[in-house]
Write a structure and sequence with these properties.
Strand content: 35-45%
Order of helices and strands: EEHHEEEEEEHHH
Oligomer: single chain
CATH class: Alpha Beta
Domain Activator of Hsp90 ATPase homologue 1/2-like C-terminal: 22-159
CATH architecture: 2-Layer Sandwich
Helix content: 10-25%
InterPro entries: ASHA1/2-like_C (IPR013538), START-like_dom_sf (IPR023393)
Family: Belongs to the AHA1 family.
Strand order of the largest sheet: 1-2-8-7-6-5-4-3
Radius of gyration: 15 Å
Pfam families: AHSA1
CATH superfamily: START domain
CATH topology: Alpha-D-Glucose-1,6-Bisphosphate, Chain A, domain 4
Length: 161
């Protein structure tokens, strides 16, 4: 399991996940950049994602649908803020309807993923920031922490291909 730690900070309204991969940062970056690789790990194994759009540039938008074991679909969207290849990805992350339209009744999370390579190993840190404690607790109750751990756990196999 590549996940080293997760930390909930209710004062800072953040959830931080740190994972380590036995691969250079350029290779780890590809699992974010390439939508076909991204959909093989974004979401827990029982809820695979299908990216219908992935404009991985600053200002770009991504839309995806995660499909549960019973066929239930849950949509999501990203709005890229900063895309600095092999180093940093910053985005807004929210829920969407089946057509990819943002769901205003659900929280929007601000997230930053950073990659740091040392001796051929890459540490990826993802910090999700919430607008309120209620939003943090709502998404944790929905399984965000466990879902992110399970999702990150799929990256090692992808990197070995």
């Amino acid at each position: 399991m590549p996940v080293i730690s997760t930390e909930r900070d209710t004062d800072a309204l953040t959830l931080t996940l740190v994972a380590e991969f036995d691969a250079p940062a350029a290779r780890v970056w590809q699992v974010w950049e390439d939508p076909r690789q991204l959909e093989r790990w974004w979401g827990p194994p029982s809820w695979p994602a299908t990216f219908r759009r992935h404009d991985f540039v600053a200002g770009g938008e991504s839309h995806y649908v995660m499909t549960g074991p019973d066929g239930t679909e849950a949509g999501g969207w990203w709005r890229a803020i900063d895309v600095s290849p092999t180093e940093r990805f910053e985005w807004e992350d929210g829920f969407a309807d089946a057509e990819g339209r943002p769901d205003p009744s659900m929280p929007v999370t601000h997230a930053v993923a950073t990659l740091e390579e040392k001796d051929g190993t890459t540490t990826m840190t993802v910090v999700s920031t919430f607008a309120s404690l209620e939003q943090l607790e709502q998404l944790l109750a929905m399984g965000m922490d466990e879902g992110m751990r399970e999702a990150m756990g799929q990256i090692d196999a992808l990197l070995r291909e």
